[in-house]
Specification:
This protein is of the alpha+beta class and 168 residues long. The protein has a single domain, classed as 3-Layer(aba) Sandwich (Aminopeptidase). It contains 5 helices and 7 strands; from the N terminus they run E-H-H-H-E-E-E-H-E-H-E-E. A 7-stranded mixed beta sheet has the order 1-2-3-4-5-7-6, with helices on both faces. Strand 2 and strand 3 form a beta hairpin. Helix 1 runs antiparallel to helix 2 and helix 1 packs across helix 3. The protein is globular, with a radius of gyration of 16 Å. The termini are far apart. Coenzyme A binds next to helix 1, strand 4, helix 4 and helix 5.
């Protein structure tokens, strides 16, 4: 039997192409039928391999989860951007390739992202998810998040509610 190694690590510029692919597949899977098609396509197209290579080089905190040598997902983390919330850290994005969802990798990446924010001395953490993204809401509630605030994000004149989950 082969053993698949699961590794969670900081992204390297050479991961950019794979992360762009994960981003495309995960965003299509999660947001088709929620975010209007034109906006979703342009949001995806903006984030090609060059965009990701730049983000990684500019020291943005991008983590990847690699299983058996394949990049299955990524997370981006940093300081909380919402002034009205007192939590200091934020997971901006957490996405897995559709075929790697539901097997525990999201939980592992989430835990690693949270630990890394703590290691940077940031107390408490926020994650925003679109209210229509039921899987994400179930996932963050299951991970012990408290939904504490709501906001609105407008895409092509379509207003979508978003929910903030927090951890202390
Ligand atoms: C949301 C996401 C990160 C979760 O990661 P995952 O690896 O699929 O989840 P896990 O296998 O670690 O499951 C963790 C828990 O969430 C629940 N969960 C996961 N996917 C679910 C789904 N599709 N529907 C309902 N619950 C789900 C599981 O039941 C599990 O609970 P348990 O531990 O009590 O069994 C991942 O599915 C994903 O990338 N989805 C698409 C993109 C997305 O929506 N990202 C979040 C944007 S804010």
């Amino acid at each position: 039997m082969n053993t698949l190694t699961i590794d969670i690590r900081k992204a390297e510029p050479s991961d950019a192409r794979d992360i762009a692919e994960v981003h495309l597949e995960a965003w299509r899977g999660a947001y088709s039928g929620i975010i209007p098609h034109k906006t979703l396509t342009s949001m995806i197209n903006r984030r090609g391999a060059d965009w990701w290579a730049n983000a990684i080089r500019r020291a943005a905190s991008v983590l990847v989860v690699e299983i058996g040598g394949t990049i299955a997902g990524y997370a981006t983390i940093g300081r909380n951007r919402a002034r009205e919330l007192r939590q200091q850290g934020e997971i901006y994005e957490l996405y897995l390739r559709p075929e790697y969802q539901g097997i525990g990798l999201g939980s592992r990446l989430f835990a690693a992202a949270r630990q890394r924010l703590k290691d940077h001395g940031l107390k408490g953490m926020v994650v925003w998810a679109l209210e229509d993204n039921e899987n994400a809401l179930a996932f963050y509630a299951g991970a012990g998040g408290r939904d504490i605030a709501e906001g609105v994000e407008v895409f092509e004149q379509k207003a979508l509610k978003k929910v903030a989950f927090v951890w202390e």
